[in-house]
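Appendix B: complex inputs.
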Amino acid sequence: MTLGLRAASAATVVALALGAAGCEDEDSDYVPPEVCASGDVAPDLEESPLMRPGGDCIGCHAADEGPSYDLAGTVMVGADDDTNCNGVGGIAVEITDAHGAVLTLATNAAGNFFHELQAGAVALPYTARVLYQGRVRAMASAQTEGSCNTCHSDTGAPGRILVP
Ligand code: HEC
Ligand code: HEC
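Resulting structure:
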């Protein structure tokens, strides 16, 4: 548990550092992936729902004036895929909040999913499941951090969120 948390916060620090660099030079935060199980490299998009698959969407948007989300992340092919490796579209991500309200988000062509911030819409902590063709991957623990990729990074203990 402590190992996982330490790895997660290291990933967060890296993501924040990349976000801060983005303020000075718009292109400097884009790093082409070296590990990419899909073989499908995301282009350097600046303002797009397909941008930065695997990146810390919420952390960077909070620092860089992007849209505000309460939940965001990416469903990818490989557990250690680098950021900017495209994930998988058409996958359902089901969030159940602390009050039992269920929210289902669909991944887009980059594998990204996100939900616009609405005050009080998602009661914390939440649980998450990913569903595809009757198969399920469920997160056993409940979470309060909505930017999934901060933990589900290429280096974080749980690895990437994968297709069931
Ligand atoms: C390195 C920083 C960074 C990361 C990481 C990042 N974004 Fe962005 N995003 C931005 C910035 C900056 C904008 C543009 C804000 C503006 O000019 O209004 C933006 C804009 C957007 C937009 C708005 C596009 C439009 O129609 O105007 C969407 C959607 C979006 N991001 C989705 C995502 C998703 C999903 C992720 C995670 C998979 C993500 N972003 C990760 C910085 C980032
Ligand atoms: C604070 C860290 C953290 C955050 C944030 C987080 N996760 Fe997780 N996730 C984990 C850990 C650790 C595991 C493995 C242990 C478990 O299942 O609880 C996991 C497991 C999972 C699994 C099951 C993986 C498998 O193959 O069995 C899924 C699916 C998942 N998470 C989806 C999500 C989604 C979707 C989000 C965002 C809405 C998210 N997670 C946010 C840490 C996190």
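The chain is about 20% helix and 20% strand.
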